[in-house]
Amino acid sequence: MDIVACYKWVLDEQDIKIVPGSLLLDTSRAKGKISDYDKNVIEEAVLQAEKDDTVTVTALTFGNAKAKQSLKDALSRGPVKGYWVNDAAADIADGFVTANVLTAALKKIGAYDLILFGEGSSDAYGQQVGPRVAALLGIPVVTFVTKLEISEGKVMAARKIGDCTEDVTVNLPAVITLLPEVCKPRIPGLKQVLGASKKPVQEFKLADLDLVAENTLPKNKIKSIQGYAMDRKNEIYTDGTVDEKVNTLIASLTKEGLL
Amino acid sequence: MDFQLTEEQTLLQQSAREFAATYCEPIAAEIDKTGRYPAETIEQLAKHDFMGMPYPEEYGGAGADYLSYTLAVEEISKVCASTGIIYSAHCSLGLWPIYKWGSEDLKKKYLVPLCKGEKLGAFALTEPGAGTDAASGTCTAILMNNEYVLNGTKCFITNGGLADVYIIFALTDPSKGIKGLSAFVVEKGLVGFEIGKHEDKMGIRGSQTTELIFKDCHVAKENLIGEEGKGFKYAMQTLDGGRVGVAAQAIGIAQGALDAAVKFAKERVQFGKPIATKQAIQWMLADMETQIQAARLLVYNAAAAKDRGESFSKEAAMAKLFAAETADYVCTKAIQVHGGYGYIKDFKVERCYRDAKICSLYEGTSEVQRMVISGALLR
């Protein structure tokens, strides 16, 4: 049985700064990383393989040339092989393009029984790619999954929706999108890190994937991206008794229309 | 000349950083305060293949190079110097003599479980009357009926009492002085081997430092490392590697203190602005960063020389001398940036300051490093 763990190489949000005096984002010093929830995706796939040695886990990503750095990191977490669709088109890809590209790659790879995604990426969190891939492949999708169990060609998944849990059983092949609480990614051991460079990586270009041109053009256009800044008034009430200070605070909040 | 880490070294550094943040940082202040040995961290170090990191896979190691190991010690020490030295004393000092000069049987019996982290290692050269003058030790190991009988006292032994395997230096022929010094693998629990005084230290308080007392302790003849009389050479060469580890610990401590100082300077507001906007603070930070980078280059240079199989005794001594004194300097300045807050135990730099001091003392004081360096110059 083949599990494909899909992940995205994103900019580390800790390194993204807001340019002082504007809301522009400075990403020039941002390093890349595997999207946070996608580490859980790889971990969950590997946990399934540890329970059942007939399970083979591979990792798949669509990213630009810089995403090469992600492969050893991903492979050190347990998958036996990496697939990398290396194309600069990833820079402007939206959920539509990414889903088309990954679907084409999955068809090329051929071996997939269970395809795992994070519920959303830690940059855009569009929640588009998993369900779109399932639709394109014509297979079932289960979203918001916090627990999964595979047996006899089926997967039983617990979905967390609002304040309740829904248990779903689907036939394989299927796509499942995972919430981070599904598992906690482990820190790879040094032998795994060193062993990752010996694992095979297969690289595709967009041209290798038999995609029609219109499926590689994003449907979303980003007009601008702005940082979110919280302005503080830094008002400190120093005069009066505690009661008076509380009254001043309430009066101030009321004046701002916040109460 | 390429000053870049390889992709592999970068990945191992990231792993060590992630490990340190997950397992070492959360308990660093607590083990400093209580003096508790972080057994659970050492267990995790073993689980993540750190304990035999620079040793070949055939002996249970991870097969990484020494520079990568240096990066690991640095990353761990950045958040917890106690864990840094527990690890470095085990890996650099406890394992190397067995790996380098031990028989194949000794390697199978001791090196493999040490590399896997099933056992903890320690190294015992220093004696109450033999510190910098390491050649004046009086511990003896006299061969009787196919066993060596050990007598004497070792002191200031890192991992003492906790380690399962000790490298002990003792005179097999006291009449020959240092030419009669030999090295042995001694297991914990042997009759006549006791753990003496536990030292109450200024810093690195999560690591344990004790006396080792030998009273007619019988050690199997096979536990002699290499040849009789070569002990001093083995000890000095092992310490060359150990010094790179301590130097890495020193730059880790310094970097941890600088990071804390930078963060504090950006957050602390005086005269209506963060103090980071003041030149008085900026210049201190600039000097700290420059010192650390210079020290780091010396440390990586020594580790790389060891990896190339070159003689690196002078390089290791220079790295340790400069890195240790840098740690002292940087931690003093880091407290200065904090002002009065830096003197309070709630702030990390107070611990860094106390931890830093040991780096210019153990595995040879700064003066010993200068002896090694000038010795190489004047040869």
Structural notes for this entry:
The complex is a heterodimer of chains A (259) and B (379). Chain A has helices at residues 36-51, 68-76, 95-109, 129-137, 190-196, 242-255; strands spanning 2-7, 9-11, 17-18, 25-26, 32-34, 56-63, 81-86, 114-118, 141-151, 154-161, 164-171, 174-178, 201-204. Chain A is 27% helix and 27% strand. The N and C termini of chain A lie far apart (57 Å). Chain A contains six helices and 13 strands. In chain A, the strands form three sheets. Chain A has a nine-stranded mixed sheet with strand order 11-10-9-12-8-1-6-7-13, sandwiched between helices. In chain A, strands 2-5 form a two-stranded antiparallel sheet. The mean pLDDT of chain A is 93. Chain B is α+β, with helices and mostly antiparallel strands. Chain B folds into three domains: 7-116, Acyl-CoA dehydrogenase/oxidase, N-terminal domain (Butyryl-Coa Dehydrogenase, subunit A, domain 1, Orthogonal Bundle); 121-229, Butyryl-CoA Dehydrogenase, subunit A, domain 2 (Beta Barrel); 232-377, Butyryl-CoA Dehydrogenase, subunit A, domain 3 (Up-down Bundle), CATH 1.20.140. In chain B, 52% of the residues lie in helices and 16% in strands. In chain B, helix 3 (66-79) packs across helix 7 (231-267). The mean pLDDT of chain B is 97. Chain A: This is Electron transfer flavoprotein small subunit. Chain A: Residues 22-213 form the Electron transfer flavoprotein alpha/beta-subunit N-terminal domain. Chain A: GO terms for molecular function: electron transfer activity. Chain A: InterPro entries: ETF_a/b_N, ETF_b, ETF_beta_N, Rossmann-like_a/b/a_fold.
Task: State the main characteristics.
heterodimer, A: 259 residues, alpha/beta, Rossmann fold, 2 domains, two-stranded antiparallel ribbon, 27% helix, 27% strand, B: alpha+beta, four-stranded mixed beta sheet, four-stranded antiparallel beta sheet, 10 strands, 16% strand, oxidoreductase (chain B), FAD (chain B), Acyl-CoA_Oxase/DH_mid-dom (chain B), flavin adenine dinucleotide binding (chain B), Butyryl-CoA dehydrogenase (chain B)
